[in-house]
Design goal:
Protein name: Crooked neck-like protein 1
Structural class: mainly alpha
Helix content: over 70%
InterPro entries: HAT (IPR003107), HAT_Syf1_CNRKL1_C (IPR055430), Syf1-like (IPR045075), TPR-like_helical_dom_sf (IPR011990)
Region (Disordered): 1-25, 703-724
Family: Belongs to the crooked-neck family.
Domain Pre-mRNA-splicing factor Syf1/CRNKL1-like C-terminal HAT-repeats: 119-403, 423-576
Number of helices: 37
Shape: elongated
Largest sheet: 2 strands, antiparallel
């Protein structure tokens, strides 16, 4: 339904009378009828409008529209684009004044609303400036500075306005106020000095720079001052500024710039002094490779190659490897360009030396790194340098007193002593090294026989036999070891001091009576000296010891000794005594071979008798392989010396090899299955006779079964065979 204009007015004007009259009666009737029709249609429309269905799925849509997208579409479609305001042409002064009044009122209202928005002040002042109202613009800027004097943009716009309008003194005044109020804002100083320089006021600009330098600004400010002086060829003034600059900002790069400044202007002596002062200024604690690289390149440009080499070596000796990569690289390039082969080798050695220094610094107990380092310095260094490195190395004593931790360490002392003796040719220092090492070793817990023996051999080379004997005697008294005894005895043998050897052997055997080798060597010594009875007594004493480490070797040596002396009966008695202690098959075989090799009458019978005795003795032996070994030896004897009947007799004693199975148990006692093994069944064993008979019957039955199966498979063949 749409409202009809004037319907209410018309209905009210004609309200009151029962029947309309006059010229408006038709209009009134028409309006009423139209209104009634509209009301009826409205009522019908209300009845026809269906109810809005409720939204069942309230989940968000898959594609979401953001506020940013709505604004962008509005901008693209220019939905809110307003037409530009109409241009206003001012034709007389009254209109201009009116326009100024309205704009100023707008600006003042904006400022009054928010005084802290500096952009409003700047726009106001720039508008006044555009109207050439400089005094008004100044007033606005001053009012703005009262509000926020720390705003840098405000000062800059104020000063730029004065400079645009060629108000130099006003601009100076503003810059002075700005740098006084905010001295740490470098932009004010840059613009102030630039203005003075553009005006040709060099003295004024220099004065401003000096005021600026009193605040010790950043490096770029100093460079600006130096470049300013250089633009006017004031080299001495620039040098003075550099002197102050490197003290205010004592960085390596600034010293290098100072030196390059001197070099650029041809003052090479001054440049060298600057580099030397920089090296002295930073000292050894704050060394930087870039300073030495720049110094060396300067000297290289001056053709001072020896000075370059000294600079590089001085720096490499004092700067760690990680911080000297560039230094190494430049030094290598320099040597390749101007050095000889020796110089190139020196730098390679120096580089490796730095690597080793870093390794031993990271882990002082890395003795392998010390060995490599020492090998390097020994090949190309002076004696004092080598000794210094050795002293540093041996100072790293293992923290734990266990021999396995000392095994590598002790070789540092050995190499040190050998270097002093063979390379440095200093016997007295060598003796001190040996004595210091022997004092350091904790002999109550462990010792190193090598150190004692090397010390003794050194003293012998120096023809100090008493010192050598004293050292070895001390070692045996403090920490007796087999190796020490053997070394001392070998020394006395070389000197042909046999009485001393006997005494040492006696001490040795008191220390270790179970050592069979010592007994054998002692007896051999007496044999060499021709004292047979003494040697025999030593052997008798040895075999009577309750505990021996290798008794079979001792008995064999004793038997061989008696055989060499051709004492057959003594040898036979020794074998009998040995068989009382052990029934080992090798002893029986050796006994039989001895009887065979004696060469006397009846030796074959005695040998056969020993084999028979051994066979009877070993019937109860559980090791059947040993019994088989005896029978095989007996059979080989009979094959060579026996008759046919003897051979047959031995063959009858040979066992039969049988494959058997047995259960296998794991370590935890559980069954691990079955395994096959070979067993030997001897005919002489009465206990095994039933088993042998059963085994023979089983084999016969199996053979018969195989023949029967073969006959069933080929009956024609059996018929042919029967006919034939």
């Amino acid at each position: 339904p749409f409202p009809v204009p004037g319907s209410r007015l018309l209905s009210e004007s004609f309200r009151g009378s029962g029947q309309p009259s006059g010229p408006f009666s038709e209009v009134q009737i028409g309006v009423r009828s139209a209104a009634a029709a509209m009301a009826a249609s409205t009522a019908a429309g209300k009845q026809r409008i269906p109810k809005v269905a409720k939204v069942k799925n309230k989940a968000p849509a898959e594609v979401q529209i953001t506020a940013e997208q709505l604004l962008r579409e509005a901008k693209e479609r220019e939905l809110e684009l307003l037409p530009p305001p109409p241009q206003q042409k001012i034709t007389d002064e009254e209109e201009l004044n009116d326009y100024k009044l309205r704009k100023r009122k707008t600006f003042e209202d904006n400022i009054r609303k928010n005084r802290t928005v500096i952009s409003n002040w700047i726009k106001y002042a720039q508008w006044e400036e555009s109207l050439k109202e400089i005094q008004r613009a100044r007033s606005i800027y001053e009012r703005a500075l009262d509000v926020d004097y720390r705003n840098i943009t405000l000062w800059l716009k104020y000063a730029e306005m004065e400079m645009k309008n060629r108000q130099v003194n006003h601009a100076r005044n503003i810059w002075d106020r700005a740098i006084t109020t905010l001295p740490r804002v470098n932009q004010f100083w840059y613009k102030y000095t630039y203005m003075e320089e553009m005006l040709g006021n060099i003295a004024g600009a220099r004065q401003v720079f000096e005021r600026w330098m009193e605040w010790q600004p950043e490096e770029q400010a100093w460079h600006s001052y130096i470049n300013f002086e250089l633009r006017y060829k004031e080299v001495d003034r620039a040098r003075t500024i550099y002197e102050r600059f490197v003290l205010v900002h004592p960085d390596v790069k600034n010293w290098i710039k100072y030196a390059r400044f001197e070099e650029k202007h041809g003052y090479f002596a001054h440049a060298r002094k600057v580099y030397e002062r920089a090296v002295e200024f930073f000292g050894d604690e704050h060394m930087d490779e870039h300073l030495y690289v720049a110094f060396a390149k300067f000297e290289e440009n001056q053709k001072e190659f020896e000075r370059v080499r000294v600079i590089y070596k001085y720096a490499l000796d004092r700067i760690s490897k990680q911080e000297a990569q560039e230094l190494f690289k430049n030094y290598t390039i320099f040597e390749k360009k101007f050095g000889d082969r020796r110089g190139i080798e020196d730098i390679i050695v120096s580089k490796r030396r730095f690597q080793y220094e870093e390794e031993v610094k990271a882990n002082p107990h890395n003795y392998d790194a010390w060995f490599d380092y020492l090998r390097l310095v020994e090949s190309d260094a002076e004696a004092e340098t080598v000794r210094e490195v050795y002293e540093r190395a041996i100072a790293n004593v293992p923290p734990i007193q266990e021999k396995r931790h000392w095994k590598r360490y002790i070789y540092l002392w050995v190499n040190y002593a050998l270097y002093e003796e063979l390379e440095a040719k200093d016997p007295e220092r060598t003796r001190q090294v040996y004595q210091a090492s022997l004092e350091l070793i904790p002999h109550k817990k462990f010792t190193f026989a090598k150190m004692w023996l090397l010390y003794a051999q050194f003293e012998i080379r120096q023809k100090n036999l008493p010192f050598a004997r004293r050292a070895l005697g001390t070692s045996i008294g403090k920490c007796p070891k087999n190796k020490l005894f053997k070394g001392y005895i070998e020394l006395e043998l070389q000197l042909r001091e046999f009485d001393r050897c006997r005494k040492l052997y006696e001490k040795f055997l008191e220390f270790g009576p179970e050592n069979c080798t010592s007994w054998i060597k002692f007896a051999e010594l007496e044999t060499i000296l021709g004292d047979i009875e003494r040697a025999r007594a030593i052997y008798e004493l040895a075999i009577s010891q309750p505990r021996l480490d290798m008794p079979e070797v001792l008995w064999k040596s004793y038997i061989d000794f008696e055989i060499e002396q051709e004492e057959t009966e003594r040898t036979r008695n020794l074998y009998r005594r040995l068989l009382q202690r052990t029934q080992h098959v090798k002893v029986w075989i050796s006994f039989a071979q001895f009887e065979l090799s004696s060469g006397k009458e009846g030796s074959l019978a005695k040998c056969r008798q020993i084999y028979e005795e051994a066979n009877k003795t070993m019937r109860n032996c559980e090791e059947k392989e040993e019994r088989l070994m005896l029978l095989e030896s007996w059979r080989s004897f009979e094959d060579e010396f026996g008759t046919v009947s003897d051979k047959e007799r031995v063959d009858k004693l040979m066992p039969e090899k049988v494959k058997k199975r047995r259960k296998v148990q794991a370590d935890d006692g559980s069954d691990a299955g079955w395994e096959e093994y070979y067993d030997y069944i001897f005919p002489e064993d009465a206990a095994n006779q039933p088993n042998l008979k059963l085994l023979a019957m089983a084999k016969l039955w199996k053979k018969q079964q195989q023949e029967k199966e073969a006959a069933e498979q080929d009956p024609d063949k059996d018929i042919d065979e029967s006919e034939s």
